[in-house]
Amino acid sequence: MFAESATHGRSIDGEVVIETRALVKRFGEREALRGVSFAAHRGELLAVIGPNGAGKTTLLSILAGIRPPDAGTVSRPPGEIGWIPQQAAFYRRLTVTENLRLFAHLEKVPDTDATVEEMLDQTGLADRRNDQVGTLSGGNQQRINIAIGLLARPRVLLLDEPSAGLDPRQRERLWEFVLGLAVAGTTVIFSTHNIAEAERYGQRLLVLADGEALFDGTSAELHAAVRESGARDFEQAFVAFLRDRGH
Amino acid sequence: MRWLFIKDLQILRRSPLVTALLVVYPVAIAVLIGFALSRGPETPRVAFLNEVPAGQPFVLAGTKFDIAGARSALCSRIDCIPVSSEQQARDMVASGDALAALILPPDLIQKLESLGSLTPSQPTVRVLVNEEDPVKARLVDDRISSLVTEANLKISKQVTRISTNYLTLLLRGGNFNLLGQTFNVLGLKNTQRILEAVRPQLPANSPFAVALDRVIQFSKLARQNLNLATPLLGSIAHPIDVQKEVVSGSPPSLDAFAISVAATVTLMFVTVLLVAGSLALEREENAFARLTRGLVGRTALLLEKVGLGVTLSIVVTLLMLGGLSLFVHIDWGRLPLFGAAIVAGGAAFAAFGAAIGGAAREVRASSLLAFMISLPIAFVSLVESGTVSPALFDVIKVVRALFPFHAALDAMSGGLDAAGPALGLPILHLLRLGALSCDTWESVKVHLIDGTYELFRYFFALPQHVNREDHEVAATRGVVGSVLTLLEEGATHVGVATDHVIESFRNDMWPTYKTGEGVDPALKSQFPIVEQALAAAGVTVWPMVEFEADDALCAAAAMAAADPAVDQVIICTPDKDLGQCVTEDGRIVQLDRRQGTVFNRAGVSEKFGVPPESIPDYLALVGDSADGFPGLPGWGAKSTAAVLARYGRLEDIPAAGDEWDVAVRGAGKLAATLRNQFDEALLFRRIATLQPDAPISAAVEDLRWTGPAAGFAELCDWLDATGLAARADALAAARARAG
Questions:
Q1: Chain B residues with CB inside 8 Å of A19's CB?
Q2: Which of B17, B67, B221, B577 is the 20 to 30 A CA-CA neighbour of A11?
Q3: In what order do the strands lie in the sheet with A187-192?
Q4: Where are the beta strands (DSSP E) in B401-478?
Q5: Comparing C-alpha atoms, which of B497, B494, B416, B419 is closest to residue B249?
């Protein structure tokens, strides 16, 4: 294949798959996003962090196409974005398989049965396939939520607070799953309140506060950007960073 | 829709309470109504205290009344509960065991018999009642009054008959019994006959002759008048006769009406609650945004819910009618008629439920709202004219017209009983109400127009027209007229993109890329004019300077498709470049207005042989002479379509032709060309790829057409096209009237 061919001497690892320019979103008088611009690359894990009300969910919902921006543009691969909302979006009275099959049909996935089996395999829920989703643990429900977002094999996966409400073991399993997706080339953009999680899993961080993008870089770069030295951990550094910028 | 429908049925199956209700409710209603109808109306319980000595006969003027028969007749109208004392009767009435107590006093017979004597005494019965609420009080008054009136009527007839006998005795004479003695009464007739026999025997000048003549005359007169009194007395017992004439309405039988009410109430509650709850569940499960993000259109979701409601309402209502037919007769030969009533009523109720479900957003709230709205509407719809004030009934008529219950009841009555109202009008009304409810889910379609294409098209299609200031304006008039036609055809949200400057950033990418060179100045000069005219017409215009009109259309399509309120984006241009914006879910399609052809994903694939996402790769290989880039040598439409249909994009095409698993003539040479000019191919693809970040800066709501701006009439005058202003004004006025 040309993608893997040395003949043309090109790499697609650095390919920008989603990009925003000067996004603005207003809710009445309040500006939830104020000119946010960033780009995400193939196979990248981008963490969107910030205090409550920073605009993280709003940004993700615009990227997902749930909300239109009031100004600015989003450049994204049409129809190739998987969206996993913070609150699980599926039918609790249906079984795991029924949920996956329903959304696979709606996504017009070519081989529904094979895709469902693959998702059951990936989520590790093959043995719970006939259980109603409402009876599963929060962690397993989140895995179904993510699996539904992955049915159409999107190039970009948007996760809004994916580990909220999960216990440490469930979180770890979730991130193993998500990291596997990124390794396979899926661009993952996730929002989180858990700063340690952002540092650990985010290859790059986008810091939002009051709808403004304050920082776009690695955790090490953010640490370095804090004027006040002596922060014991990344969370302290992050808080100091926000304080430095008046938040 | 099919999968959503199956999903809803699966969820219903997993909700035992709801499923049980769907079965139990109609069966319970059927049993209740069936028992009520088959057993007839319940008789009121009345405590009956008879203090009249046992065995005492009731003889009125020699006629013996059948007391036992009278009692059984009375007790067939009421449920007589014999009691032995007045206190017992009082207790029963006070406790509510009996609606009332009827006490016959010991002297009742004597007093009744006195009515036939010369010294009548009015008989009295006593009634004890418990008027704890106004409805009960009215019921007691009506029942007891009715019974007493009936008894009075019977006795009155007998008294009248006795009176008539007395009169006959006076007229004709005869024997009369009083206090055990028999008297002979001469009678007026005999008196007159005797006097008339005596009169000729008197001497001619007898002083008694005149007096006797006066007596004979009186006797005659008395007979004649008393003859008239007999029918008069008869009419007292039945003084007024009633002749009824139906001037309006065609009531079904009482049974059919009761069945119709039961069926319509069932239909309403089941359908409204089910659809409202099902739609609210989509939001409660957070699935609504996921579905309407591109998987299912809002209209499709609405139709699925209405379909679910109609299907289940048919099942439930037929189940109920089936249960009822065990108790009462239902003419199943009329199934097509009442079946149509069920379907139309179900559709209207389902649409009504969808409007509630859409507003409530969660299942409990939607159920509560559905009950709170449906119940009073059903109640009010059953109020009949003449039972409330005219003003209130006018309000009730409005409620009946706006909500489906009354129309559904009429349709059901007409369907079940030939004597019921005609079926057609209620069904039409129901379908109209259903459509109105669906309209609450406004289906937004966004029309995006390629202004440059339209201007070129009209420039070459229309004869020239130079206005008073020596400007060529024919094409401008054509474009504005064309956009107005689109609006007149029902478009609500419209945006037009133009190439304000024909050159764009792509001219820096490829030297021969299209420029404004060679474009007729008379055409070129109309770009700013048409932009100004369209803006004055109230249409959103995007004049592109750095980008091209196609980029703006692509950006606007992405922006509009991202809005969940939008059902479909229609890009109005036959330009092949825009094929790349068409989406698989059908939310973005391309329309060739001249041909009237809509291209969805399948249409694009059929036209070019490749799906929308491969259009830039396709153009990169075959080139685009209109845009001014050549493509790769040797790559024609057929070979390109075959290769890209298999591999999708340039990067995935195997480098060597013998690795291709698609049969293309000259594969080796084509592959070599691609290999050697791959960077160029990528460049052409970048050129052919539309930029979704073109500056359109508009939300969907900004595209809604609300009428022309103030200066549009003057501009049309300048264009020598005042008819355009008149059309825009008329359309704006029509939309304002339609709300």
A1: 693
A2: B577
A3: A81-84, A156-160, A187-192, A45-49, A204-209, A212-217
A4: 444-450
A5: B419
Helix, strand, coil percentages (3-state) for chain B, rounded to 5, are 60, 10, 30
Radius of gyration, CA atoms only, chain A: 19
| Domains of chain A with bracketed CATH | 12-80+188-247 (3.40.50.300)
Q: Classify domain B43-178 by CATH number.
A: 3.40.1710.10
Q: How many CB pairs under 8 A join A and B?
A: 111
Cα distance between residue B612 and residue B603, in whole Å = 9
SS3 B279: helix
**Spatial CA neighbour of B262 closest among B421, B25, B38:** B25
Are A148 and B290 inside 8 Å of each other by CB?
yes
Please give the Cα distance from B28 to B288 (Å, whole number).
35
Nearest 5 degrees, angle CA A41-CA A42-CA A45? 70
* Residue B14 confidence class, pLDDT cut points 50, 70, 90: confident
Say if CB B82 and CB B98 are below 8 A apart.
no
Helix (H) or strand (E) holding B176: strand B174-178
Residue appearing with tokens 């219950």: B405
Question: Residue B587: how many CB atoms within 10 A of its CB?
Answer: 24
pLDDT category of residue A5 using cuts at 50, 70 and 90:
very low
The H or E element containing residue B47 is: strand B45-50
Whole-angstrom Cα distance, residue B355 to residue B504? Answer: 48
Predicted-complex ipTM score: 0.74
Question: What ranges make up the beta strands (E) of chain A?
Answer: 16-27, 30-41, 45-49, 71-75, 81-84, 156-160, 187-192, 204-209, 212-217
Render B320-351 in DSSP notation, one character per residue: HHHHHTTTS---GGGHHHHHHHHHHHHHHHHH
Distance, in Å, from the CA atom of A39 to the CA atom of B318, rounded to the nearest integer, reads 59
Instruction: Copy the structure tokens of residue A126.
Output: 């093959």
* Helix, strand, coil in percent for chain A, rounding step 5: 40, 25, 35
Produce one character per residue of A155-191: b if its CB has 16 or more CB atoms within 10 Å, e if not: bbbbbbbbbeebeeebbebbbebbeebbeeebbbbbb
Determine the angle formed by the axes of helices B16-39 and B254-284, rounding to 10 degrees.
170
User: Chain A partners of B643 at a C-beta cutoff of 8 Å?
Assistant: none
Alpha-carbon distance B287 to nearest alpha carbon in chain A (angstroms): 5
* Pair of tokens at residue B350: 């389902």
Residues of A in Cβ contact (< 8 Å) with B694: 73
Kindly list the domain boundaries of chain B, sorted by start residue.
2-36+251-439, 43-178, 186-235, 445-601+691-730
Confidence of residue B532 (pLDDT cuts 50, 70, 90): very high
Chain B residue with CA closest to A148: the answer is B290
Q: How many CB atoms lie within 10 A of CB B161?
A: 16
> To the nearest whole angstrom, how far is the Cα of B696 from the nearest Cα of chain A?
9
Per mean pLDDT, which range of A5-9, B43-47, B118-122, B530-534 is the poorest? A5-9
One-letter amino acid for residue B412 of the chain: M
Q: Which helix (H) or strand (E) is B22 found in, with range?
A: helix B16-39
Within 8 A of B4 by CB-CB distance, chain A residues are: 102, 106
Name the nearest CA neighbour of B434 among B446, B426, B423: B426
B605-656 confidence digits (pLDDT tens): 888 888 888 899 999 999 988 888 999 999 999 999 999 988 888 888 988 8
Q: Residue A3 pLDDT > 50, yes or no?
A: no
- Homologous superfamily of the B445-601+691-730 domain (CATH): 5'-nuclease (3.40.50.1010)
Alpha-carbon span B60 to B114, nearest angstrom: 8
**Closest approach of B608 to chain A, Cα-based (Å):** 19
